[in-house]
């Protein structure tokens, strides 16, 4: 494992000494008082044409109906010295090469360094692939030309940043949080009796085990009920944007073939209504980012069975409830007219997991099984046999991932390019040097799930090879690297 710091805002010691001497020799207003804090936001439409595959589930239906538009939602913050960009993309997960293309445009055209630009997916399961179509998206494509939709998304991300920059105006900022435990449940359960995986091994843990299933023992991990949020408004009090962060997977309840941004978009619409920001220019931008939700959904697995909702009904219920609770805290926020900003980023090299001889032998048996015969191990075994073939043939032995940290006053934000388990997000909050902190997942890339070493021991969907691709202690290395990055900007 190796790592390389790309850029940070930690000042050179000589420069700090000069600043200290200058401060001692000359009295007057503070440095912060001479700065103007500004914020700007934008919406950039990335709704795809119909006919492409919707990804996020195993059936991959073609998109045949657009229920609501997909967007890149962008917020730019500027403290007079540093500029930070947060761009949130309505997609299940976007490959690094798309984000790198967008960052290259932003850096070359708008002169904002890539280390200060964070781009992440919401993880809606009702959007088309930004990683090419069909099984091709399972392969290793870094360095290959982008397809039409990937290129479109990259350009629209850059367009959104340019528009948000044009919307910059003097602003004030605040942040807060509220616990909303009603909607978050760990979807991984330790079973009383072990269950077969499609890889030909038995697991102690099972994802989505069935409501009130008699084999349930205990949840495999914790949940994080905290909704953290950042709010910016004009000096006159007109809302510019709210960026929320909740550790809950997509909600779903979407008919087959429908394009939708899921509950993330409904949260944005509802918080805009509550803030009475429906008719303003530039438009208000409400954002909900995905926290550490790799093992979290909103189904109460021990039971009883919840209410049955019509299409889009449950996501509206969840999003509206979260927005209303955020709004309740928003009204008592103490907005500041200036806070210091900072950013640090690095590349971390991780090993790619490889199939054991026993696993390869199991998959060879699966490939030889006639399609109409009863599965040897699991109903998904044929799918995983093909995924593992692609993984073994195409993926390199190691990959470089981008990690980022951001400072907004005494708020810290971490960004990780995986679907991260809640326990890792809680660990980052606990170890962060900042008074408040949260993590945005699926940022700057999308490399599958990130179980902890302990979760690898009990198995389950999120640990299966190709669902998880990197070394089993990757979560430990990532948390350690993030703490180092936080130290650069503390």
UniProtKB/TrEMBL annotation:
Pfam families: Ceramidase_alk. Residues 38-297 form the Neutral/alkaline non-lysosomal ceramidase N-terminal domain. InterPro entries: NEUT/ALK_ceramidase_N (IPR031329). It comes from the Bacteria. This is Neutral/alkaline non-lysosomal ceramidase N-terminal domain-containing protein. It comes from Membranihabitans marinus.
């Amino acid at each position: 494992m190796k790592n390389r710091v790309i850029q940070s805002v930690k000042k050179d010691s000589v420069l700090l000494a000069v600043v200290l001497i200058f401060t001692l020799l000359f009295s007057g207003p503070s440095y912060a008082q001479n700065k103007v804090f500004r914020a700007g936001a934008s919406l950039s439409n990335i709704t795809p044409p119909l006919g492409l595959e919707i990804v996020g589930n195993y059936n991959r239906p073609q998109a045949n109906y657009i229920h609501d538009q997909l967007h890149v939602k962008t917020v730019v913050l500027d403290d007079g010295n540093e500029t930070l960009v947060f761009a949130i993309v309505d997609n299940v997960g976007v490959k690094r090469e798309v984000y790198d293309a967008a960052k290259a445009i932003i850096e070359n055209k708008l002169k904002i360094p890539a280390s200060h630009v964070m781009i992440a997916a919401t993880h809606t399961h009702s959007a088309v692939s930004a990683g090419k179509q069909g099984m091709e998206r399972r392969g290793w494509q870094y360095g290959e030309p982008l397809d039409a939709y990937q290129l479109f998304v990259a350009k629209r991300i850059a367009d959104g940043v340019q528009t948000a920059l044009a919307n910059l105006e003097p602003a004030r900022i605040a942040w807060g949080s509220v616990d909303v435990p009603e909607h978050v449940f760990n979807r991984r359960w330790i079973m009383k009796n072990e269950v077969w995986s499609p890889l030909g091994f038995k697991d102690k843990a099972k994802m989505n085990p069935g409501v009130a299933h008699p084999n349930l023992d205990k949840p495999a991990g914790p949940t994080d009920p905290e909704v953290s949020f950042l709010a910016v408004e004009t000096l006159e009090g007109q809302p510019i944007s709210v960026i929320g962060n909740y550790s809950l997977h997509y909600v779903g309840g979407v008919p087959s073939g429908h394009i939708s941004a899921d509950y993330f978009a409904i949260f944005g619409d509802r918080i805009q209504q509550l803030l009475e920001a429906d008719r303003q220019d530039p438009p208000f931008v409400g954002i909900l980012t995905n926290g550490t939700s790799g093992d979290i959904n909103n189904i109460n697995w021990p039971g009883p069975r919840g209410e049955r909702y019509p299409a889009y009904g449950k996501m509206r219920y969840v999003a509206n409830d979260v927005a209303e609770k955020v709004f309740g805290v928003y009204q008592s926020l103490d907005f500041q007219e200036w806070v210091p900003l900072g950013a640090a980023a690095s590349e971390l090299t991780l090993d790619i997991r490889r199939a054991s001889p026993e696993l390869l032998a199991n998959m060879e048996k699966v490939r030889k099984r006639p399609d109409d015969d009863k599965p040897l191990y699991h109903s998904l075994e044929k799918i995983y046999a093909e995924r593992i073939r692609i993984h073994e043939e195409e993926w390199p032995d190691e990959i470089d991932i981008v990690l980022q940290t951001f400072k907004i006053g005494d708020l810290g934000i971490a960004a990780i390019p995986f679907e991260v388990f809640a326990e890792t997000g809680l660990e980052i909050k606990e170890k962060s040097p900042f008074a408040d902190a949260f993590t945005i997942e699926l940022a700057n890339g999308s490399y599958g799930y990130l179980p902890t070493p302990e979760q690898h021991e009990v198995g389950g969907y999120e640990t299966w090879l190709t669902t998880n691709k990197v070394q089993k202690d990757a979560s430990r290395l990532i948390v350690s690297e993030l703490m180092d990055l936080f130290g650069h900007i503390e």
